[in-house]
Predict the 3D structure of the following.
Amino acid sequence: TARIIAIVNQKGGVGKTTTTINLAAALTLHGKKVLLVDMDPQGNASTGLAISRKLRGISIYDVLTDGTDIDEAIQPTGVEGLQIVPSHIDLSAAELEIGQQAGRTTRLKEALAKVADKYDYILIDCPPALGLLTVNSLAAASSALVPLQCEFYALEGLSQLLKTVEMAKSSINPKLVIEGVMLTMYDKRNRLSSQVAEDVKKHLGRAVFKTIIPRNVRIAEAPSFGQPVMLYDPQCAGATAYMALGKELLNRHNRS
Amino acid sequence: TARIIAIVNQKGGVGKTTTTINLAAALTLHGKKVLLVDMDPQGNASTGLAISRKLRGISIYDVLTDGTDIDEAIQPTGVEGLQIVPSHIDLSAAELEIGQQAGRTTRLKEALAKVADKYDYILIDCPPALGLLTVNSLAAASSALVPLQCEFYALEGLSQLLKTVEMAKSSINPKLVIEGVMLTMYDKRNRLSSQVAEDVKKHLGRAVFKTIIPRNVRIAEAPSFGQPVMLYDPQCAGATAYMALGKELLNRHNRS
Ligand SMILES: Nc1ncnc2c1ncn2[C@@H]1O[C@H](COP(=O)(O)OP(=O)(O)OP(=O)(O)O)[C@@H](O)[C@H]1O
Ligand SMILES: Nc1ncnc2c1ncn2[C@@H]1O[C@H](COP(=O)(O)OP(=O)(O)OP(=O)(O)O)[C@@H](O)[C@H]1O
Ligand SMILES: [Mg+2]
Ligand SMILES: [Mg+2]
């Protein structure tokens, strides 16, 4: 059955969506079947895979709030082997709508249980907050992958995030583990990147992925064409790095 | 009485905190008295001004949840003329705590009314979401300043954000106007930046600040020293740009 990975970090703009899309695409290029769940009301992962707003009639919002069958919300993408449950702007109201109901933290977990046997991996893109949408994602996930931008503020939030994952583990999901911390937007021209990278490796050791994602403008251009970077520019440094990350993840799970 | 400006954008990592700190410092260097309010549970603005976690005993959390007098929460910073109301990690629970109470959207507005006559400007740093903390900020503000990162995903969220500001204006704060959209992390080496900049200027015209903030590593280094960039490296491109932004804002208000 599928490994379910929540891509999470409450710090904004650290590469959660970029990692969800490009790691998902890399896994499909390594022969895996992947479902991407867009749990961010901004819907950047849906946009980055060319799912226009008009096509988001049935979204994760419906699955979470009125129990729509997740099969009805699953759509194909332009990437072979990659399907998506898109987001919807109404998702920002979902926290208020389901916030007081029973079972509010396990809606996503129950929905994904019905389709987990059809995929090798399910990747969940989370919003920049530790609210109900992220809690649902951590409850549903077997592991949490933390993209870490190589900058000062991003480092500050890391210890709080790891505490939150531990809390989710002890209160709602005992199986939850940290998949790893992934360094991204690494710029070898500036010493801030190497300082942050050294700091993280010193404190977290083996929990840090060996693959480091460089800052690479092709990665930032790809979503405007609705494509993962390895389809937009397969030879660029960004594409190579995310393919290597996919390989490293598969090796960790002995599934390569 | 003070002009109250909410620095807001639900997209994460677009430079809200960086703009709040550096614009606040620039305004003090132009001779103004400024209060910075950190409404983000991450507390990056507090950290970026060297307010350690130990010094956040009384924070905006207390003001919003149990009516602590805002005067008790105000502290000096290392920048002359700049005071701060720090954040606290408990602020992430404030949405749940005050979410069902009467007057929940105007707590900040009422608190700031008591001190507005002591300052020329009050700048509010918002979290990357359109929840109760941002709504409180829009209710309290006379205007909203929108930092816009010159990248594709950041552009996508802009129309939603402008709608939200209009909604806040019609439902809770008729005086609220858009101060302007400020382009930041502009990298003249890549065409993505100029494409986004042209697109925004075409659609929003005069609402776009003339000053463009370049991508400049000194800006990203400064918070690790607890300083605004104009104190960390006064001659760098980042410092010059934020000083120019301060001047442009003052000119708009005929207060230079
Ligand atoms: N390695 C990289 N090199 C260059 N640009 C990158 C890289 N990774 C991400 N970006 C760009 O940085 C910006 C932030 O990334 P992204 O939107 O994926 O972060 P996020 O954590 O999902 O943000 P949010 O908190 O708003 O959900 C985007 O414009 C993206 O294109
Ligand atoms: N003009 C710039 N040049 C270089 N780096 C910048 C610039 N502006 C901001 N940064 C860096 O980019 C990152 C994101 O900026 P910042 O944290 O201010 O954004 P934010 O919108 O407040 O994020 P959040 O959504 O998490 O609150 C930070 O590491 C910051 O130092
Ligand atoms: Mg995202
Ligand atoms: Mg911030």
Remarks:
- The two ends of chain A are 16 Å apart (CA to CA).
- Chain A touches chain B through 35 residues (CB under 8 Å).
